[in-house]
Amino acid sequence: MSSRQSNLASTLHNLDGRNYGNLKQIRGRYSFGPVTVFIDRVQADPFASPSKVRVRVDRADAKFPLDLTTDRADRIAAADYLLRAGNEVLAKLDQRALILGRPGQEVLERTNILIDDAGFEARLLVNLPARGRRILGHQAADILTRDLPDFAERLFLFDRWSDAPAGRGGNTHGPSAEGLTDHVRLHRDQLELRSHLGEAGLIGLVGNGAILPRTSGDSDLPMKSSDAVAFTSPPELEHTVELSSGRTVTGMGIPRGVTVIVGGGYHGKSTILRALERGVYPHIAGDGREWVISDPTATSIRAEDGRAVTGDDISAFINNLPSGSDTRFFSTTNASGSTSQAANLVEAIEAGASTLLIDEDTSATNFMIRDERMRALIPAEREPITPFVDRVRPLLTEQGVSTVLVAGGSSAFFEVADHVIALDAYVPKEVTDQAHELVGVTAADLETAPTGSDPHTGSDSPAAPSFIAAPRVPTAKALRPASKTKTARAKGADRIQFGHDFIDLLAIAQLVDTQQAAGVAEALEYLAEIFDGRTSLTQALGEVEDTLDAEGLDGITGHRDHPGHLTRPRRQEIAAALNRYRELQLER
Ligand code: ADP
Ligand code: MG
């Protein structure tokens, strides 16, 4: 093996100045002391997508503490740490040709770093250097035979961490044992807190001291703490959890049920909701939202006019459309604000959401409410929409689905809210009793309230909405159109190319990591294999998740060796992408 090392270097030196196509021959496996370098794919020309390389170190050489890298959840956190540390190592080596991938604020399962029973592996992309179409062989040798093994040693040889030289840049620190331990422990604590919330009947917790606002609308970094008002829970909703690590977390517990957030414009309502939206994922230390934890199935629901819908049962919300369309199997290539929001909602429930997060800023007003005068003016049989305000309680009582709703412009939801929280200059107050008093409702009324009035009969008798239709079953070829010759590919963070079509992910708020779109694209390919004209969408999503849980992201990719840079999406986001595929075909 060791002879292969000098081979690679001398091969590259010999290739200097030759035609780029000759680089193909360096594919293979090379050994550099404890580091094995795999060159899995070599780009065809300097402008093609980068080459794929991996570096691997065995456990026996890496000597990582077992207690931090054995459990599946710990491995996710440790890999996340190594990814962040790996970027610092690359910065220190000043090697820009090597690309490890950049994570955001969330701790997520990714393919960039793999920790398994046998060892540690980093998957990199590398732009192999050229002048024109000529190989720069000496530079390529530096990258692949000097910097790449050096990177792997600095990152994966735990013994070398302690004496890693401090970064010259001042604020870059190499990996440290303490950093790894803290990272893994924080992740454990966040997961433990999340499972506690479920047991305590809460769908979310916002920790006291949390910094929710971000530096700007296009950044996910926390606002400077000197500018931000740190979160404090109203005493009535305060909830304290003692974690097994010894850490105690106190914050605002949001109980299952219907919670309405009110308050003046610009008082921080959407900021809280957005933090809950992100709270389905663990966060890194210093993010400010480490202790904002939500129901892992919580799904953000918005209006999205223009989207395509295929065979959704939106009849709980929409009936008797002037077009005569059957809203129990509703399809359109161009949904309206209200029909798109209804579709988003029933699809979220189909994908397993037990909490909905809804912001007035991104909702269709006619989907959400209809006031008394409008009800008087437009007879029920002329109005296709049963507004969400009439359905939010049956959703809870019949379907077990909670809602957190931002509504600063209307009191309509007071009568259906278990909790009303008012924000005043970013400070939340519990105002449920006042809100209930204003509309003459008591908590006891809510328990016994009818499950919604039926707009079609105009009577107040409870309608029997069904929020979930018969299971939707994609056809065997649903994701295998004849026109599709290439595998699905993410185009940036918000779009997937799927055959001749593009799937637009822009409205999917909980795709948070730029690599998640690539994860979704792989999941769609995996779903394509499962669909057989009998398996329902829900069952198929379950199968994808089972494989992801058992084998990780590598398990759903068609690639052997180097899967590229992917981040695991939730099943909700996989479903959301599938539902936006304009050519989706269902069995009927
Ligand atoms: P609303 O939805 O109530 O209109 P937003 O949540 O959009 O308000 O917040 C309005 C502005 O206030 C945003 O620029 C946001 O970054 C900022 N902001 C939100 N929460 C805080 C806070 N706790 N401290 C400081 N600024 C905040
Ligand atoms: Mg807002």
Automatic annotation (TrEMBL):
<dbReference type="Pfam" id="PF20446">
    <property type="entry name" value="ABC_N"/>
</dbReference>
<dbReference type="InterPro" id="IPR046834">
    <property type="entry name" value="ABC_ATPase_C"/>
</dbReference>
<dbReference type="InterPro" id="IPR019195">
    <property type="entry name" value="ABC_ATPase_put"/>
</dbReference>
<dbReference type="Pfam" id="PF09818">
    <property type="entry name" value="ABC_ATPase"/>
</dbReference>
<dbReference type="InterPro" id="IPR049069">
    <property type="entry name" value="MRB1590-like_C"/>
</dbReference>
<feature type="domain" description="ATPase of the ABC class N-terminal">
    <location>
        <begin position="7"/>
        <end position="155"/>
    </location>
</feature>
<feature type="domain" description="MRB1590-like C-terminal">
    <location>
        <begin position="489"/>
        <end position="586"/>
    </location>
</feature>
<dbReference type="InterPro" id="IPR027417">
    <property type="entry name" value="P-loop_NTPase"/>
</dbReference>
<dbReference type="InterPro" id="IPR046833">
    <property type="entry name" value="ABC_N"/>
</dbReference>
<protein>
    <submittedName>
        <fullName>ATPase</fullName>
    </submittedName>
</protein>
<feature type="domain" description="ATPase of the ABC class C-terminal">
    <location>
        <begin position="178"/>
        <end position="442"/>
    </location>
</feature>
<dbReference type="Pfam" id="PF21117">
    <property type="entry name" value="MRB1590_C"/>
</dbReference>
